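S.,

Sequence below, as promised.
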Amino acid sequence: MSQNQMSAHESPAYARIVLKLSGEALAPEGTLGIDPDRAEDIAEKIKAVHALGVQIVIIIGGGNLWRGERGVKRGMNQSIADQMGMIATVMNALALREALEHYAVPTRVQTAVPMNTIAEPYIRLRAIRHLEKGRIVIIAGGTGNPFFTTDSAAALRAAELRANIVIKATKVNGVYDADPNKVPDAKRYTHLTYDKVIADQLEVMDMTAFTMCRENRMPIIVLDFWSPDALRRAVLGDTSVGTLIEG
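The prediction came back faster than expected:
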């Protein structure tokens, strides 16, 4: 059965999602930079969700190219270090757009930092219009302000664009009560409340972003992006995939 035939019989649980991707997702294994093969792997997974009719906003980080804290530790001004990181996210957004267009998935890049010859400025109503026309929107440049992470950008855009959920794509298949790389019998949660995350100091995303999601009652799913079909299954409402945080 083809992907289109399958999509016709499947109903996604979420009409509009914000997908938070780390910059490292684009990096060659064990190093830094942008790997075109990894970009195409990511695009293929996103295409499968787009084929379901889901409206997709992507927020991408820049850690594969630059991490601001490294500069700050060497005495760099925080604002400058963060601005460099914002520019790195634009490079990643352009690479991912090209990979998606390679698969004939219409995609637009918007930036919170004005770069009019490279990408559209982020305009909320324009982004919504793109989504309604079936285009994926990649929003780069974080929030456009230093001192805020791309997690915060994901939470902010999800609220502004009235998304149904934030999906945080990681290398781990959910939230655990301890580091599963260090504690073999660490427990994975399938469902958490906002209050439980705060009370147990569980690592989901930075606290500014998490608080924004909590205040807007924005559900969050943390999942292993590289697990076969995990993203698509989560969008279809499979509660066994990752960890759902709500309520």
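The first strand starts at residue 16 and ends at 21.

Coffee later?
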